[in-house]
Amino acid sequence: MVERRLDVYCLSNMGLHVLIDGHSILIDALNNGEQRPYAGIPLDMAQTIIRGGPPYERVDMMLISHHHEDHFDAGLVARFVLERPHVPVYSSLQVVDAVARLAPEMDSPVSIKPKLMHTVSFSKGRLGVTAVALRHAGPQYADILNLAFIVEGSHSIIFAGDAAFSEENMERLAELCPCPALLVIPFPWFSVKTACQRMRHILRPSRVLITHLPCEEGDRWGWNRAVRNALALEAFSPICCAGIPGTRCFWPEV
Fold first, then answer.
1. What DSSP string describes 233-254?
2. Is the peptide bond before 85 cis (omega within 30 degrees of 0)?
3. How distant is the alpha carbon of residue 88 from its chain centre?
4. Which tens digit of pLDDT belongs to each residue from 16-67?
5. Per residue in 171-182, is it b (16+ CB within 10 Å) or e — as a string?
6. Whole-number Å distance between alpha carbons of 252 and 254
7. The sheet that has 182-186: what strands, in order across it?
8. How far apart are CA 142 and CA 104, in angstroms?
């Protein structure tokens, strides 16, 4: 009997290890550790993932949202693909090309090329995954294809990547996955009041995981403080901030 369970572990900036219904998924896991002030994956953890050590012996797929080094490192992903060729890696053509230049003999990753607001779907066992192309936050990144991922099993998860906190993006996600069990977002979605209100009323998630916060010591913009203030003021469903790499995310009981 398949266990109907969802566990989420923080790995890096937005990097996650998702355990759902007996499946193991890595999302934005192998990023560049030099991308200060954002958290890079610890080198020993990256090596364990690449070599398939515990708890990463069985990984069903790796998902990469977009071509920015705080979300993926081409060298680490190329090593993962060469060491573990049986694990499919799904990402944008920009990411696939960067990895392929370092590992031209590989059979994976799989390039996903939906047009803006369009989707590509794939599956593993009873687990369904949908990738939807959403606008990246910031007009300076208009050339970057950002893929949000929707994972659906006994629980539904939305991983937004670096999608802009626009009403258009949120409404598209709500069309595809209304009322997700877990919404994984970069911190601006919560620290900006209008974005938080949109998120609550449009997406209506049961739980929220806030990611992409800079390390406290490098946070010259005061983003951590802004999120803490928002947490204190905004009545919302259970919320958790991504913590130390390797730790399980925890939400207070409703």
1. H---S-EEE--STTPBP-----
2. no
3. 16
4. 999 999 999 999 999 977 667 888 899 999 999 999 999 999 999 999 999 9
5. ebbbebbeebbb
6. 6
7. 119-124, 127-134, 146-152, 156-159, 182-186, 207-211, 239-241
8. 28
Structure token pair of residue 244: 């130390």
Work out the burial of residue 165: count CB atoms within 10 Å of its CB; fewer than 13 is exposed, 13-18 middle, 19 or more buried. Answer: buried
Alpha helices in the chain (DSSP H): 43-51, 74-83, 93-100, 167-176, 188-191, 193-198, 223-233
| Single-letter code of the amino acid located at 30 | L
Q: Which residue has the higher pLDDT, 136 or 218?
A: 136
Q: Give the confidence band of 254 by pLDDT, cuts at 50, 70, 90.
A: very low
CA atoms of 178 and 193, how far apart (whole Å)? 21
Q: Contact, 95 vs 68, CB < 8 A?
A: no
Using CA atoms, how far apart are residues 60 and 123, in angstroms rounded to an integer? 10
Q: 196 falls in which pLDDT band (50, 70, 90)? A: confident
Amino acid found at 201: H
- Rounded distance between C-alpha atoms, residue 97 and residue 88, angstroms: 15
